[in-house]
Amino acid sequence: MPKSKRQKIVNLTKTSKKGKEGKDELVSLMREACDTFKHCYIFKVNNMRNNYLKDVRNEWNTSRFFFGKNKVMAKAFGNSPEDEYKSNISSLSARLVGNVGLLFTNSEPEAVLEYFNKFEKQDYARAGIKANETVVIPAGPVVRGEDNEKFPHNMESQLRHLGMTTSLVNGVVTNQKPHTICKKGETLSAEQAQLLKHFYYQMAVFKISILSHWCDGKLEILAEDEVNNEDAESILGKLGVLEFDLESYNVDWMKKYKGKSEIVLRPKSVQEVSEVLKYCNSENLAVCPQGGNTGLVGGGVSVFDEIIIQLGRMNEIRSFDEQSGVAVCDAGVILENLDNFVGERGYMCPLDLGAKGTCQIGGNISTNAGGLRLLRYGSLHGTVLGLEVVLADGTVLNNLSMLRKDNTGLDLKQLFIGAEGSLGIVTGVSILTPKKPNSVNVALLAVPNYEFVLENFKLAKSHLGEILSAFEFFDSKSLQLVLKHLNQLRNPLPNTEDSKFYVLLETHGSNFEHDQEKIEMFLEAAMEKEFCSNGSLAQGEGQVRDIWAIREGIPEACGKEGAVYKYDISLPLKSLYSLCEVVEKKLINDKIYLPNDFENSLVKQVLGYGHVGDGNIHLNISAKQYDSRVLNSIEPFVYEFTKKNQGSISAEHGLGVMKGKFISYSKSDEMITVMKNIKNLLDPNGIMNPYKFLV
Ligand code: FAD
Ligand code: MLT
Ligand code: ZN
């Protein structure tokens, strides 16, 4: 293979530059490659596996590979003889269809074809591939592989979960009756693919097929791409939305949940979403809807290799009515962008949360996110006026109503608010936005104990009732963590180290002097009653932002400290913080948390913060790493405590993969049955976000 000093592999999806800058860079790198290399080949990857592709790239490291958006790559070549970069190279542009890449090299076609014709890697099939043989697991003790290896007993429940009739008989995994994993020619579901892997059946072949070759103005067709074959990749690839660099889609915000999706689709329209779901439903292919991937319960990443449908390209604001404040937009619009858009028109989003720069309105609706001002502006169940949703079979339910009142029949949209992608994909949203307040005041109080946090809340309601827009609290451990990890922030209340708690309260009103007077009176009263040891009223927008940055920075700081076990629990106010105290005690009793022996302690600390105004605490257990000993000490203890105290195991983050199996701590069997019936009605094949939520 010829060697060159100019080695470079470019994958558009890996370039850090986004948007126009990234596209321009790809165009210029491709043109540089046109000038450097003699040959350009179009290739197609069958059964994409990143590790094998990496091997190929390493072996061809003197050549250049490009995986980019077909449209951008075509632009680099030119789309017609008039604008083509090299003689007749626009003929390659026309062949950039579906799941293809480019290889620029100085190697002659014989060498290239010889290498790629031989290069094949057998691997496990994933969902969407057709089975190449029938596989039946007989009744009796379950074995696998050529050596009839016994199945590990701790995997029995997984097999059962995947549809087999196994049980443990004297510690041996035993199949009650023969189980047909798949029939030859059948399209594999995620469960079937998983079972085949457990039984060591490799049915996929990673292969790169060279399709076309361009050299010195001449185009040679070496193989026809089977764009019409009905496998998942080609159908979905025709949408032009396949992505290759999947790491960021497969790992959640906390880096706690990792999926194995090999296909991420980023549709641009409701029609594309409908086409994809219709196809997936007909082929029994499981999907995982994904918004901004800021969810905290593992709902937005796949469990196995479900196809991820990411809504980021559906990011248009469709309309805004300046009279009523109703905004209609695509589900993939980032919350902050929506807030800025309506903000420029004198309105604000009723929902605000620390992840606003990344999360999407469709994700917010699907988790029924609560956020920082629910106390004042209410939940999405009230502010969402209508939704456009694509059901599992591709049916589009269009109910983008802009009406505040509509009593015709069942209010179907409510089903999808908080459904966590289990019933369909939200593609459009109609939401009522309130007027932006003329005056905003923010105060931070240092509070000696939790009882006084509640006293301050009562006092704030009586002094500030109609203008109170947020009442948040955090313990001093949370503050210390923020100051440790977010260097740009400082404590606005220095010398308050003795205070165990801090309260952030905010007012939204219409008259600044009037509001300030009220909040000052509140502060005076709180100080007089010694409900707080110190307090600070933000002067100007900068200080308002700085105080909020501390509260909003807590999740980020927890993430920077290490592994974090997060619980978002609703409880009656009187027992809100005691949750943190009893869990800390339990961890100490179980010798999982050794406060005086940091080296041997699995847990670093236990801290709490949250939305007092909504009766919602965020218990965070910071640990050195994710470890089953820590988890076993916390769960189900934390859920038992919640149930005993009439709380809910999820106040706002949802169930996801984390809490699906614990739903019965908050809902009765009858309610769970009705939920499951609704799920079966709307998604009879169970393709929507399986293994989570209702399990
Ligand atoms: P994702 O994480 O991508 O998905 C979340 C769930 O919704 C998944 O089950 C997914 O399958 C589903 N889903 C996503 N989009 C769609 C769609 N279009 N159609 C159907 N299903 C879909 N949450 C709060 O409630 N309050 C807070 O104050 C809060 N603060 C946060 C602060 C930080 C720093 C972080 C990281 C998270 C915070 N969260 C909070 C959690 C999270 O941001 C919210 O749950 C948010 O609503 C998730 O939106 P997303 O677009 O990131 O969705
Ligand atoms: C918050 O209120 O900050 C969020 O819900 C995120 C979290 O719980 O960490
Ligand atoms: Zn929260």
Automatic annotation (TrEMBL):
Homology family: Belongs to the universal ribosomal protein uL10 family. Belongs to the FAD-binding oxidoreductase/transferase type 4 family.
Any one Pfam family match given in the protein's UniProt record, by short name: Ribosomal_L10
Function, as annotated: Component of the ribosome assembly machinery. Nuclear paralog of the ribosomal protein P0, it binds pre-60S subunits at an early stage of assembly in the nucleolus, and is replaced by P0 in cytoplasmic pre-60S subunits and mature 80S ribosomes.
SUPFAM superfamilies: FAD-binding/transporter-associated domain-like (SSF56176), FAD-linked oxidases, C-terminal domain (SSF55103), Ribosomal protein L10-like (SSF160369)
Name listed for the protein in its UniProt record: mRNA turnover protein 4
Keyword Transmembrane among record annotations: no
Classification via CDD domains: Ribosomal_P0_like
Top-level taxon of the source organism: Eukaryota
A cellular-component GO term for this protein: preribosome
Reactions listed under catalytic activity: (R)-lactate + 2 Fe(III)-[cytochrome c] = 2 Fe(II)-[cytochrome c] + pyruvate + 2 H(+)
Cofactor: FAD
Gene source species: Clydaea vesicula
Keyword entries, A-Z: Cytoplasm, FAD, Flavoprotein, Nucleus, Oxidoreductase
Subcellular location: Cytoplasm; Nucleus, Nucleolus
Any GO molecular function: D-lactate dehydrogenase (cytochrome) activity
GO BP field: ribosomal large subunit assembly
Stretches assigned to the FAD-binding PCMH-type domain: 257-436
SUBUNIT field: Associates with the pre-60S ribosomal particle.
InterPro entries named in the record: FAD-bd_oxidored_4_C, FAD-bd_PCMH, FAD-bd_PCMH-like_sf, FAD-bd_PCMH_sub1, FAD-bd_PCMH_sub2, FAD-linked_Oxase-like_C, FAD-oxidored/transferase_4, Mrt4
